[in-house]
């Protein structure tokens, strides 16, 4: 759903006018022109040439003066033609001053009357990630922002996950990228590495009230080369869901605590159409399976691959065997979001590694889900991959300061609380403790899931600050997937993945 136009964001802004001409220069120019006209034609250029004889006659005879009163005009006129010329010049100077005063007043009045119109031309655009259902509240953001900045218009776009990237990239190439963007996972990294996002570190540092407002653990996940590029919009990380009924039927007393226990429990629950384990696989969400076995993706300096080890080969071989015998549902390696969630919601999968938003999808599609049948805990070792949403500013924004003010408003206590309350999600801000207290009273099952999102946030993994994150992710996963699906030996797949990753890092 899109609110507003999908077209390029045509921004207009007030054009600065050049400095007004110097008043004394204008006056001198008119005086010179007047003198030339009098000398050349013996008349006033404003009258089309020639002195007005009737007026000069009256002046000579002490009659009333035409035009502005010139001090000492009669005395000057008594001197003859030379004096009359001086009177004319004096009169013209008075008229010029009046004209300039009128022009100045008019320009000032025009400026004052058009300022609000020019100011209204300021425009911000906001791109969010698949939350059209939040339309009413986002319009509330915009209305609140309008009260503070009446000279700014905000246009809102919303795109589904698969559409978001192509849309934003098209706008970036066209030079019309939305000012404020809502990104998921590590998508922001590539744009930050290529200079496409505004470094918001100075904004965070200059506002003391924000120091303890955003959760520092989550805020750190949006740091690239020492600079913060996003702030939390809503946060999530992976956890382990488990079907209590299937565990009980298999004689398993508690959730698994190690990798070996996980596969053993999954194997005991596997029979017929039922499988023991499944995971989401996008955005490195499967990585805890490797971390709990001591596998690191890269060296500490992030310059070389470090995953091609005997421990990694053993881990991948174990996953491949479990997939081959049905212990691990193959959807774990071939699905993305809908397919794994539907499989777990069907009640035929015992253990499911996913991030918190999956709970609401599963509960909506699984009539079996209740407090007696569904449990939630950390993965073995407490390791988790964040898959949060952050708000940042496109580098091409003409109004980064205003964009930052909008982000602060959208993540303020009022609106962070409203968002968290509506979606039963946490926001990575200090309002989360209040949200948790209320959720425990209103929805105990959801609270049991969501509390995992605030626990052990010191064990977040797969948060490598890589500008080529998307490319490295694809290079590794394509080989890893081939191995766990039995299409390629684990050792060969990891060796090829190592070659691909090192080649990317060397560029």
Please describe what this structure looks like.
With 507 residues, the protein is an alpha/beta fold. It folds into three domains: 23-117, no CATH class; 120-236 and 389-441, D-Maltodextrin-Binding Protein, domain 2 (3-Layer(aba) Sandwich), CATH 3.40.190.10; 238-382 and 468-506, Periplasmic binding protein-like II (D-Maltodextrin-Binding Protein, domain 2, 3-Layer(aba) Sandwich). Helices cover 49% and strands 11% of the residues. The chain contains 22 helices and eleven strands. The chain has a five-stranded mixed β-sheet with strand order 2-1-3-11-6. A four-stranded mixed β-sheet has the order 8-9-7-10, with helices on both faces. Helix 5 (135-148) crosses helix 17. The longest helix is centred in the N-terminal third of the chain and has 39 residues, at 81-119. The model is unreliable at 1-67 (pLDDT under 50).
Provide the β-strand percentage band: 5-15%
State the helical fraction. Answer: 40-55%
Structural class designation = alpha/beta
Mean pLDDT: 85
Query: So, the CATH homologous superfamily of the largest domain?
Result: Periplasmic binding protein-like II
For the record, the CATH class of the largest domain is Alpha Beta
Q: Kindly provide the radius of gyration, computed on alpha-carbon positions and rounded to a whole number of angstroms.
A: 37 Å
Q: Helix segment count? A: 22
Major sheet: size, sense and barrel closure?
5 strands, mixed
Task: Order the strands across the largest sheet as they lie in space.
Answer: 2-1-3-11-6
Which stretches are poorly predicted, pLDDT < 50 over at least 5 residues?
1-67
Broad shape? elongated
> Span between N and C termini?
39 Å
Could you please say which CATH topology of the largest domain applies here? D-Maltodextrin-Binding Protein, domain 2
- Strands, total number: 11
What is the CATH architecture descriptor of the largest domain? 3-Layer(aba) Sandwich
Tell me the domain tally.
Answer: 3
